[in-house]
Design a protein that fits this description.
This protein is an alpha+beta fold and about 375 residues long. It has helices at about 10-25, 80-95, 115-125, 195, 200-210, 215-220, 345-350, and strands at about 35-40, 50-55, 65-70, 75, 105-110, 135-150, 155-170, 175-185, 225, 250-255, 270-275, 285-290, 295-300, 305-310, 315-320, 325-330, 340, 355. Mean pLDDT is about 90; it is low at about 1-25.
């Protein structure tokens, strides 16, 4: 695969790129993906990074950006998305060669992509890594802002759409399928290995970490902290449930603001928190979770006293045997605090109509396939 190194020399060249970007930002389409949606989850055992081969589909020609000669005689990018793709392409190739990289990145031409996951896996060239799991990664940029400069330097930001499938070669089955919208950013106006990693390989690794992190969640489940759905499944195939799940005695909604269209203002509303339970054993004493704006975590908890803990903001609640469930939401409070609010069953049911399960596939009114998605892999 041939690689193209773009040189952006002197301030005049960067100014030309900024002018191009201003023209390109006239219209921003709504993201084709939600912030995060789990379409399939069948991870039965802990997975290590060294067990995963990561096949990233890249058109070889995308490694060479479109360029032209500027008024000042320098070579500049003709298309900002093309420039970013060329840097990302090089970053994936560099990651594949990096001996310190635990994932085995394998750049692959898009011709090997098929609508079927199995056809895609079976159609790949013979693996040279010998790894049990193969991750298929389809990605694209939805919005790019190149070279916003100030006294501290120039920074670029992008909205990145990622579809990820993980296939178990030993069990011969798909164990994971997810989609997400995220923000990537880098500094500088020329290619740098470390910075370019931030607009490609790093975010693929973060996505795959969601599978690896299942180890902690699974250990908590052994102590009775079971993941579940917020809604009872519908008796009608293809329809979302209309009643809250009676087994879910804790449903926690993220209602933080979000911005998924503008790469400069992007905000996923993602928050990290712990659920602490001194009466449980092992990892279940303190289990870490995170979810994005307009997603929820639904759990089936053993009786006892629990505390949801953000950095400083906390909420204690009791789960009683055959007692009422606890419904909570969080959003922005005053003075940069997080406000944790108790909800009525009616309000909780209302919020499920505009929320996705952060941990498991769940058919809500805004989930796939009730909400159309432009997926690469639509068949098993």
């Amino acid at each position: 695969m041939s690689l193209f190194s773009t040189s952006l020399r002197c301030l005049a060249a960067s100014a030309a790129l900024l002018l191009l970007m201003q023209g390109a930002q006239a219209a921003r389409p709504q993201s084709a993906f939600p912030l995060r949606e789990v379409l399939l989850s069948d991870v039965a055992q802990p997975i290590e990074r060294k067990e995963i081969e990561v096949v990233v589909f890249i058109a070889p020609e995308s490694c060479t950006p479109k360029t032209h000669e500027s008024t000042w005689g320098t070579i500049v990018s003709s298309d900002n998305t093309s420039l970013f793709k060329s840097w990302a392409c090089r970053a994936y190739v560099d990651a594949a060669k990096d001996p310190k990289e635990e994932f085995a990145f394998v750049p692959m031409p898009p011709v090997f992509k098929q609508p079927s996951i199995l056809d895609t896996v079976q159609g790949l060239p013979a693996s040279t890594t010998g790894r049990r799991y193969v991750a298929l990664v389809d990605w694209k940029y939805a919005d790019t802002t190149l070279g916003k400069c100030n006294s501290f330097g120039c920074y670029s930001s992008l909205v990145m759409l990622i579809e990820t499938v993980v296939y178990d070669r030993v069990a011969a089955k798909t164990i994971w399928h997810s989609i997400e919208t995220t923000r990537a950013a880098m500094k500088g106006l020329s290619y740098d290995v470390k910075e370019a990693n931030r607009i490609g390989p790093l975010h693929v690794a973060i996505t795959l970490n969601a599978i690896i992190e299942r180890k902690t969640v699974q250990q908590a489940e052994e102590q009775g902290m079971r993941r579940t759905t917020a809604l009872e499944p519908s008796n009608v195939p293809g329809q979302a449930g209309t009643a809250l799940n009676k087994k879910a005695n804790l449903i926690f909604f993220n209602r933080m603001p979000q911005e998924t269209v503008d790469s400069e203002k992007f905000d996923s509303g993602r928050k990290f928190y712990d659920i602490q339970a001194s009466h449980l054993q092992g990892r279940a004493k303190k289990t870490s979770y995170y979810n994005d704006s307009r997603t929820h975590v639904a759990l089936e908890l053993p009786p006892g006293t629990y505390e949801i803990a953000f950095y400083k903001d906390r909420k204690t609640f009791d789960i009683k045997e055959n007692g009422p469930p606890v419904y909570l939401s969080f959003d922005n409070g005053i003075f940069s605090t997080i406000s944790i609010n108790e909800l009525s069953p009616q309000k909780a049911l209302e919020l499920t109509q505009d929320s996705l399960n952060a941990l498991l596939p769940e058919l809500t009114p805004v989930a796939y396939p009730l909400r159309a998605r432009k997926l690469q892999w639509t068949q098993p």
